[in-house]
Amino acid sequence: MFDSFLRRREDEKRMIDEGRLPPGQAVTNKFPVLHYGPVPHFNPDTWTFRVYGAVESPLELSWEQFRALPSTRMTLDLHCVTAWSKFDTQWEGLAVRTLIEAGLVRPLPNARFVIQHAEYGYTTNLPLEIVLSDNFLLAYRYEGQPLTPDHGHPLRGVVGAVPGRADLKTPYLWKGAKWLRGLEFSAEDRPGFWERAGYHNEADVWKEERYG
Question: Is residue 207 part of a domain?
């Protein structure tokens, strides 16, 4: 236990020296589980993923169709609003820009935001520019393995910091929804579950925008 504590302190100092640890955060080598409500059941035969709203045509994909699309891998530093940070995590999934580049989704000119819709009616919101950036992914694999149920299996939005990419806006981790079922493109911003409960709408980790 003491060795683990020392290793975490060493990691924390290294992340501070590299400018990768945001204010108010502490390094963890674990992956804490935090969510509201029960873990939903996944049935691959009935599961669907929808893209709709301010797009030319709505899109609906089965799990098989979703997994057949080209995958993207990302290395992300994760920053939770509860003050833990986990570094150099490995993710695989579908980049939203892949849907657009393939012509499967064509946002309308007035689309400026994306609302993530998850199981049980849960939502969270992000500007379109972040959803299309190199630090947002529709993820189905973590560290080379399928997501576990309590981390969002089969699909979650994940958003974090890309090491060495200070140009990218980095929101706290709650801005990626677990158990994701769809994306709604929108001309208007629409705060989601935690935003309506008092969390900051933009959630910039470097500005410590935890609460509104």
Answer: no
Q: What is the CA radius of gyration of the chain?
A: 17
> Could you give the number of structural domains in the chain?
1
Residue 149: φ, ψ to 5° = -55, -40
What DSSP state is assigned to residue 175? G
State the residue for tokens 């008092």.
198
- Residue at 203 is within a domain: no
156-167: pLDDT as tens digits: 999 999 999 999
Identify the domain containing residue 96 by its residue range.
Answer: 2-196
Does residue 191 have a cis peptide bond before it, meaning omega lies within 30 degrees of 0?
A: no
The answer to the question of residue 142 being in a domain is: yes
Paired tokens of 204: 């910039």
Question: Does this model's pTM top 0.85?
Answer: yes
